[in-house]
Design goal:
The chain is an alpha/beta fold. The protein has a single domain, classed as Protocatechuate 4,5-dioxygenase, Chain B. About 35% of the residues lie in helices and about 25% in strands. It has helices at about 20-30, 50-60, 110-115, 120, 125-130, 145-155, 175-190, 205-220, 230-235, and strands spanning about 5, 40-45, 70-75, 85, 90-95, 95-100, 135-140, 160-165, 170-175, 220-230, 240-250. A hairpin with a 2-residue loop joins strand 5 (about 90-95) and strand 6 (about 95-100). Helix 1 packs across helix 2 (about 50-60) and helix 6 crosses helix 8 (about 205-220). The radius of gyration is 16 Å and the shape is globular. The termini are far apart.
């Protein structure tokens, strides 16, 4: 029986569909990013790569090439969802190749939640560029408590071979000035491991972020803001912008 493949849904829209163009874009963003300590977990944005790619690269540059397993959680933009949803596909495909996929027994499968979702897909080319070969555990988060997400993360935490990636943008379609204020407040809450300082207005990935913060607090982790910009700083106009933050978490 042929293994099932989750085909890319947003290639050619959120990022280039041509492998050479996609690789060159990511390599350019990575070359401009500054290396730093190796994190256990990162929060990275998920907009069109031309907009949020430079901010995402500032976190991915810190990921060691020794990582062989990635737990990736992003919000559900397409369908209403309770809890977390795994994928039944054996591989996820991008223009850069296929990545083997796992679905943990503790998480129900819901392929509809993954079919058109971009929040996870746009992270995979960065991971392919940094890691080469790795196993992926892709999870879409719907309505769920911080404790629910934290419990799933705890089960999947692993050791130094495992990286946790949370996919989230920050403020949406605010003026440049307002976005900077909102994103700064969100960044303060995240680095303080304070779930109460976040809401859906300043973090579309609120659910997975709060799950990570809940667990990071229990584990006495340190959070660092790496980069905080918006689409007006990268490739878009400044009348209505989307905020992007990159954060690293250390054990």
């Amino acid at each position: 029986m042929k293994a099932s493949v989750r085909e890319p849904a947003v290639a050619g829209m959120f990022y280039p569909a041509e492998p050479e163009k996609l690789r060159a874009m990511i390599e350019g963003f990575m070359a401009a990013a500054k290396p730093g300590p190796h994190p256990k977990a990162i929060i990275v944005p998920h907009a069109g790569t031309i907009y949020s790619g430079p901010i995402a690269a500032s976190a991915y540059i810190r990921v060691p090439s020794t990582i062989s397993r990635v737990v990736l959680i992003g919000p559900s933009h397409r369908i209403p969802l309770r809890g977390l949803a795994g994928s039944s596909a054996s591989f996820w495909r991008t223009p850069l190749g296929d990545v083997p996929v796992e679905c943990p027994a503790s998480v129900p499968v819901n392929d509809a939640a993954h079919e058109l979702e971009h929040s996870l897909e746009v992270q995979i080319p960065f991971l392919q560029e940094v890691l080469g070969e790795f196993r992926l555990i892709p999870l879409v988060a719907g309505e769920a408590s911080a404790e629910t997400v934290s419990d799933v993360l705890e089960k999947l935490w692993g050791g130094p071979e495992t990286l946790i990636v949370i996919s989230s943008d920050l403020s949406h379609y605010e003026s440049y000035k307002t976005a900077r204020e909102m994103d700064s407040a969100a960044a303060k809450a995240i680095t303080a491991l304070d779930e109460r300082g976040l809401d859906y207005d300043n973090a579309c990935g609120l659910v997975p972020i709060c799950g990570l913060l809940h667990l990071a607090k229990q584990k006495k982790m340190r959070a660092e803001l790496i980069d905080l910009r918006n689409s007006g700083d990268t490739a878009g106009p400044r009348d209505q912008v989307v905020g992007y933050g990159a954060f690293a978490f250390y054990e």
